[in-house]
Amino acid sequence: MPTHTSTAQPLPAFAHAPLILLVTAFMALQPLSTDLYLASLPSLASGFGVPLSTVQLTLSLFVIGFGGAQLIVGPLSDRFGRRPVLLAGLSLYLAASILCALAPSMAMLIFARFLQALGCCAGVIIARAVVRDAYAPQDGARVMARCSTWLSLAPLLGPILGSYLQVTFGWRAAFVAHTLISAVVLLLTIQRLPETNTVKNPHATDPRGLLASYRLILGSREFWLHALPGAFSYGAIFCFISGSSIVLIRVLTVPTAWFGFCFAFGVSGYLIGTLLCRRLLPRMGTQSAFRLGTLLSMGAGLLFLASVAAGVAHWSQVLVVMFLIMSAHGINFPIAQSGAVTPFPQQAGTAAGLMGALNMLVALLVGTVVGATHNGTLYPLAIIACVLGMLVYASLQVATRAPEVAHG
Questions:
Q1: Is residue 126 part of a domain?
Q2: Does residue 105 fall inside a structural domain?
Q3: What is the pLDDT of residues 67-86, one digit of tens each?
């Protein structure tokens, strides 16, 4: 059973850089890109005169762009380095955020959100690869848990800020905030991020080299052992990201100005979960902590469906279940992110991209189902959360028992 008493330190070559701060900032772009404008979803529908299913495309197309780009960004960073690919991605995110804020139509907003996703993807993928580059393998999960603790402030405070921006200035203000935040992150990256990819792979983007990397990664039981439960765990929280504003504001009549606080309470579970993860890892070991987190995911989903079946329909019920599922994700996701990338030092970007694409595929399916099944009750959200919780737990059990796939 592993025990570590010292704080994880970057390798000597990168000790001068504020890597924890930078990695957290890159990863925070994703929750800020979604959570900051959640309170605006109902008003976007009425403001542009479109159905809620059309507004959901601003989330779905973001997920598609984010997921697809990861298959490109990862290998590009393996070949050309983390820094140039990241700078290009952040610049695109900045330009797309400006376009979102100025969008004259829903079609233009959806297109701008797609571009925003492409730039955001570079930050998240390269953040995972930087951790693999700059820290010893045994410290990866602890570093990701530490970053995730600070990262939780973004989905915690983002919806509160977004609610006030919506009530005070309207929906465009959220994208102005995206513009300002990304400009700061871009400037910080230019000034302080070193190149961490010291062993660039010149064949990473060649078709044969890329296929060889995919075969290696997808044939690894260690990859699936972490990536599959992590993806379903991400899907479990995404059902609340995509459905909570509609359920709380329209079904349970929570005032828009209060939505941010409600969402923040649920997301505070993620903060608690990451803190628990940091405590559990040295005491129980990675796999035992992972097992506990997946069990909590399943239990929360079952609790939600059972309470709805019993006739309960209250905003506090949604928040409690959301808190529990977010807590489980705070345990599961740092372990999943580190474990899926650690076995592949020369394909870290590609492995991070494959895991991210899997996360986004699950999120896209979940968001589509949430939007399509909304019927004015809590049943669709409860059923989806329950199914995903069971998949989180079952996928870890199946992957643990599966034999290693031969590759070569």
A1: yes
A2: yes
A3: 889 889 989 999 999 999 99
